[in-house]
Design a protein that fits this description.
Radius of gyration: 21 Å
Number of strands: 15
Strand order of the largest sheet: 11-8-15-14
Order of helices and strands: EHEEEHEEHHEHEEEEEEHEHE
Low-confidence stretches: 148-157, 256-261
Shape: globular
């Protein structure tokens, strides 16, 4: 039990430890996404705790579009978990859930193939049919929902799309520790949403390669705030610097057919600005003109309209 991290020490909700993430991924069927077939090895990084399955970023984006009343999605590495949700993931898993949810899939219907050209419309239709309509359970309808079910008007729904941000790396980060490099992590914010990457210890040129998902209300006006922080143990975390990306700029580079585009838009070496001063007053004059660093990111916008 202790090896699975099930001891209730009162410290929940919490970020899952690497061992707890490994325990979830070791459940039968959890080596790949529950909702699509991957041609290459890809470890799932998201979960629907409502159904006890693990997901790839694209499938997680569609699940979030269903609403939390249907599917509640958590990151395996970025979100804080309740003990009951962790226990459910260990007790279920992709193999167990799919035995029920995909009991009667007609031979004419194939699970979506997740490659570089994944069709997000097909993935959306598959997931809505499987989870929302329960079309493939025993005695289910066996029919896919029509595409029109996801073509809601922008004015009639809260979110118009899902933004997948892959936080790639940073370089030349400003040092905010006296005796070592900073311990950086990245925070992505949009409206009331706030998600962060893992911390990289003592590194001015860190690499994260982590996906973060944000719900988008209006892609023409929404702007993502990205900030890089230095994690501290005995004091508040320090802001290294930040930058802003307008989703409209992502769409402009991604192309007009945003709902079907799987090619990421690259924003390389975004200049970080602002930030907290160096903690050592005597060092500040020498650090004043120093660049705060550069952040590299990839974006994919998945339209829900």
């Amino acid at each position: 039990t202790d090896q699975l991290g099930l001891s209730d020490d009162g410290d929940w909700p919490r970020l899952l430890s690497p061992d707890q993430v490994s325990a979830i991924l070791a459940v039968p069927g959890n080596h790949t996404c529950a909702d699509c077939i991957h041609t290459a090895s890809m470890t799932p990084s998201w979960a629907s705790v409502s159904f006890g399955v693990v997901l790839c970023p694209q499938a997680a984006g569609v699940h979030r579009g269903l609403g939390t009343h249907v599917s509640r999605v958590l990151s395996l590495t970025l979100d804080k978990w309740e003990l009951k949700d962790y226990v459910r993931m260990l007790a279920s898993g992709n193999l167990h859930a799919n035995l029920e949810l995909e009991d009667s899939v007609p031979a004419s219907i194939n699970k979506p193939l997740a490659d570089e050209d994944i069709n997000l419309d097909s993935l959306d239709v598959w997931i809505r049919s499987k989870y929302q309509e329960k079309a493939f359970v025993k005695n289910g309808s066996g029919k896919l929902v029509t595409k029109s079910l996801r073509m809601h008007s922008l004015s009639g729904q809260e979110n118009s799309g899902i933004l997948v941000i892959r936080v790639k790396s940073a370089r030349q980060l400003y040092r905010l520790d006296v005796t070592s490099e900073s311990d950086p992590y990245v925070v992505a914010e949009l409206g009331q949403q706030r998600f962060k990457t893992k911390r990289v210890k003592n590194d001015a040129n860190p690499s994260w390669n982590e996906p973060l998902l944000l719900n988008v209300k209006n892609p023409n006006t929404d702007v993502v705030h990205l900030s890089v922080w230095d994690a501290d143990t005995f004091s508040k975390d320090d802001l290294i610097g930040d930058c802003y990306i307008a989703i409209e700029d992502v769409l402009r580079q991604q192309g007009t057919n945003a709902s079907n585009s799987a090619e990421p838009v690259v924003f390389k070496d975004q200049l970080l600005q602002g930030g907290d001063p160096h903690p050592c007053v005597c060092v500040r004059p020498f650090m004043k003109a120093k660049v705060r660093g550069y952040l590299s990111l990839e974006f994919i916008y998945n339209s829900l309209v």
